[in-house]
Amino acid sequence: MSTNKPLLKVDNAGIRFGGLKAVSEVNLELLKGELVGLIGPNGAGKTTFFNLLTGVYVPTEGSILLDGEKLNGMAPHKITKKGISRTFQNIRLFNDLSVLDNVKIAYHTQAKHSIVSSILRLPSHFAGEREMEEKAIDFLKIFNLDDVLYEQAKNLPYGQQRRLEIARALAAGPKLLLLDEPAAGMNPQETEELMNLIALIREKFDLTILLIEHDMNLVMGVCERIYVLDHGQLIAQGTPVEIRNNPKVIEAYLGEEVS
Amino acid sequence: MKSMKHVKGFWLSIVLAIIFSVVIQFLITGGTLNSFYVNTLFSIGINIILAVSLHLIIGITGQFSIGHAGFLAVGAYASAIITMKLALPFPLALLVGGIAAAFAGLVIGIPTLRLRGDYLAIATLGFGEIMKIVFLNIDYVGGASGMTVSHLTTWPWLMACVLITIVVIINFTNSTHGRACLSIRENEIAADAMGINTTYYKVMAFVIGAFFAGVAGALHAHNFYIIQPANFGFLKSFDILILVVLGGLGSMSGSVIAAILLTIISTFLSNYPEVRMLIYSLVLIVMMLFRPQGLMGTKEFTDLLKIGKGAKGGSQDVNKQTIA
User: How many domains does chain B fold into?
Assistant: First the structure.
């Protein structure tokens, strides 16, 4: 593994909002094919860190490299094209559109037909649209969503909405998938299904995954390595066992031991 | 298979529209329709173009623009200069009107489309007023007294423009590019995260919408004999906005139907100038109370037909191709 070049290398990255250091001095490396967890108490800066990776915020310090290419200051849609795709803590589907359209939109960046060919309905438009539709339907089959293709996204039950969001993020063709609390609000059975799904997609799509999660069972169960963030800084990293026994982590979660 | 059916329906509607235009043309040349009805038909046509072009910006892309009369003015004046000052043919004026407005859309769109919601509305409102004042102060185009323009808008030209507008906007919407615009309306942050260049598509929708508003401006200028800056104030922008909202945000058939209905209502009410605005406002209030989602909601005409035939459950088919 040591010869493996890191897919994502975060070097001393941080962001401050005015005087507030939301995230600072984060060093993190993801190797290709890894499944890594990012945990931390509420307000630790986990989602802010995701926003730095995806270009929603521009880091005020440090650098973020994907495959050796610097992502700092790149617009979010360009970062997606470079190969980072994400889901959101509070689901952000295209609510009024169908399940199928939600996924088709993620394929947009791969579309070859131009606006002019669509307006003039040239053969390339029909070919492009057909290819997109077939790809999207095949894709949704993997996620068991092919029986609700024409349902509006907002009408799906919660668990399916989460699944659709993951499907949509994957359709964008990422090398690195960021999942922001995918199990939030799920019951144990749904969480179990989600864990299986994550394992499945990882195998199938040759992915590297970074996962924010509160559900310790899920994190400890599926992640190979875990980073712990508290007050915007990394306080620990290691295997699930190491993290479970790390006094700093216990302190961050449960408070300082009274002496 | 599905796309074949769509193609058939598409050609059928085109043929029907052409038959309709030819019939009307015969009625006009035969003198069966008096000039009052002919004028109403012309107003309806122009309003359809305006409503459909604004529908692309507000209903599809979700950018709340209320300066559409500004593009109308640019198109009207640019085309009037072509025919009246430079004595060039009318078809060229139509094209130049559209291109001038599209250019205005590009120039105003790039800085303002970074704004969201209320801020964008105020910025576009400002743009509309600025255009009005610009034309008010250019003596070349007649200043406040305006420009006289010869009547060159004919029924075939009008129908051709209406059809082209509708076809272009339907085709744009029912493609991956239209879906990119819809995704911006639905959730801009998620659209960005899916790799959609949101600024590009917002500006694109704005430019296409402005182009057709400019064409409508050219038709308008060559229909009403005179254009004055006062005709292109924010009240005109609101008139167009009302068509889109009343028809149902996101429904193109709704915009068309609203354009037809409201033009007819306001034309007939012009016989009673003292109560005209009163009744017009009442219609709008009642409408918004009883059907806040607009005449068509987000549905299209074709969706209604499908439900009528009892095909596979309505709610599934609503989204079949898109919302346009």
Answer: 1
